[in-house]
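[Q] Does anyone have a clean structure-token version of this?
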Amino acid sequence: MTNLSFIAKLLKQEDVNIEFKSKFELSNILKTICAFLNTDGGWVLVGYSNKKIFGIPSNVEELISELEESVLNIILPQPLVYINEEEYKGKKLILINVLKGSRQPYSLDSNYFVRKGSSTISANSDDISLLLRTSKIHTSTWEKMNVTDASLSDLQNKEIEKTITESNIKGRGESLPNTIEEFLAYFQMMDFSFISNGAMLLFGKEPVKYIPQCRIRITVMPYGKTGDTYSDTLLIEDNLFISFKRTVDYFTKNLPLINDFDPDSGHRVAMPKYPNLALREAIVNAIVHRDYADYSGDITINIYSDNVEIINSGEIPSNIITDNKINPHHSVLRNPTIAHMFYLRGNMEKIGRGLSLIKKQFSEEGYKAPEWTSENGYTTLRLYTVSEKLNDRMNSFLNQLKKGSKFRRQDYVDYFSSNISEKTARNDISVLVSSKYLIVEGKGPSTKYKRTNKELPNITR
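[A] Here you go.
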């Protein structure tokens, strides 16, 4: 999915709150952002109005920086707002995604704004009173509930300090406190001496001791769901930042590259087994959006020979994905504090666009499109890798070879009536071994090759 198609879909979407601005007027845009924060969230598209594309004539990056700085330092408490440069029909626009605030009311220079219909207005005393009463609903969400018998000493100070440091480096706002206690209190992760579930998940020394459902389980199933053995299982029980790093590192170490083989030239081209950025985005989405109030399940990652299955509790709203097509939508965060911390650490840049970005990168790099399913309280994302390019000769030989049977290299030559050379046979068998269709037994003249249980691919590039 390109930026063009995303803007086009956004403009056609009827159930999305969107405000159009023909030109960049900072104060006017900030009022609209503040109003969206205090109501149901929405999108602001700058450079477009009345079905006419005005565009942003110049200095787009400077305008975005000015807007980001203002949002983070003038609007309080600090909100989650994503601002990006987009291109539509050859002109540059600014697209702003405002998430419904979880800590209402939000103020702009000590003034409050709300949406009434399609208009932004100053909030009166009744509006502010309603926002204050509504905000109590958000403070009772699971991630803000206190952990029994936990204190500040149960958190890793270095992870909290790193979050503060990364926030300052990336210019996430001058309004944030710089001490651990004040930082946690500002984001409602610490109330007097009580630590919240969110703080324990994000920064805990031993979070599984208090929140056992924080686990991530990675299982390698080398020959598909019919395989009778697991080649590897990793159970990660760390806080979310360490768990994210360990999961990404696992994929980097164990699934770094595949060889795209050209049978004619005999050359191999190394390429990622999965698009790296899309894989990271998929892991972040599972960690940030899962339903941690569900005590029955971990995040489960099953690695098959030709796909990865990521399962987490919590269903995607039905209006977001239709027939595996991703619709522009408002992001209603299940875990707004966790999402904000990942944003401060630089791991989330386009909330509400994550699914589209995953699909876009897979499509652009020639992989089969990812598939999402949501049912019975769980969401499953299936990511497909590029299948090995086997030539007709290899496919023909494998199709007649029973699983578990063995052969020698000369048997491979004889199968083709000696019409191939020893070198060609070696090259073919080498590809089949590296692709895990065969395993090697023995050495030297006694070497044999055994057919594994791995199925021939039905996914092509």
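[Q] Thanks! Anything notable?
[A] The chain has three domains: 1-137, 212-329+354-384, 392-451.
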